[in-house]
């Protein structure tokens, strides 16, 4: 384990990466940092996997919300812009809802992806694999979720540097 610039915790040994990712102790998430999402100029939006959070609703009980791991590349400091494994501002963005009279293959596939996504809690340690598919490199980063979640905001849950 290495503490990098800005306090990021990077796992760099084969055994610690294996222990962190393979025994179910931590939810494992991924973020694509080599290809920004198309069509979002002037912001550079990077996205990753989906994850879920559970929130209590007075009217409906326990509800599950699904979001996408996201990050804005333009908000990064100049000294870390070329080092994606150090980027801050990783968060779970809420998904948009669009009602349609049709229900077909793509809806079922999206429901399947949502059902297989990890459940995140507040103040939870997580593993985030920052991958750059263009350069075929990746970094395994240990992070922590914040103590506040809000499914009614665009940013449902934030991830911060892990502090030992």
Outline the structure in words.
By secondary structure, this protein is mainly β. The protein has one domain (2-161). Helix content is 13%, strand content 42%. It has 2 helices and 10 strands. It has helices spanning 14-22, 105-116, and strands at 2-3, 9-11, 28-32, 45-57, 61-72, 91-94, 119-120, 125-132, 137-149, 155-161. Strands 1, 2, 3, 4, 5, 6, 7, 8, 9 and 10 form a 10-stranded mixed β-sheet that branches. β9 (137-149) and β10 (155-161) form a beta hairpin. It is globular. The mean pLDDT is 80.
Short overview:
Helices cover 13% and strands 42% of the residues. It is mostly beta strands and 164 residues long.
Annotation keywords:
single chain, 164 residues, mainly beta, ten-stranded mixed β-sheet
Number of domains: 1
**Tally the helices: what do you get?**
2
User: Please, what is the average pLDDT?
Assistant: 80
Give the termini distance in whole angstroms.
Answer: 11 Å
Oligomer: single chain
Main β-sheet description:
10 strands, mixed
Order of helices and strands: EEHEEEEHEEEE
List the helices and strands and how they pair.
Blueprint: E1 2-3, E2 9-11, H1 14-22, E3 28-32, E4 45-57, E5 61-72, E6 91-94, H2 105-116, E7 119-120, E8 125-132, E9 137-149, E10 155-161
Parallel strand pairs: 3-8, 4-7
Antiparallel strand pairs: 1-2, 2-9, 4-5, 5-6, 6-10, 8-9, 9-10
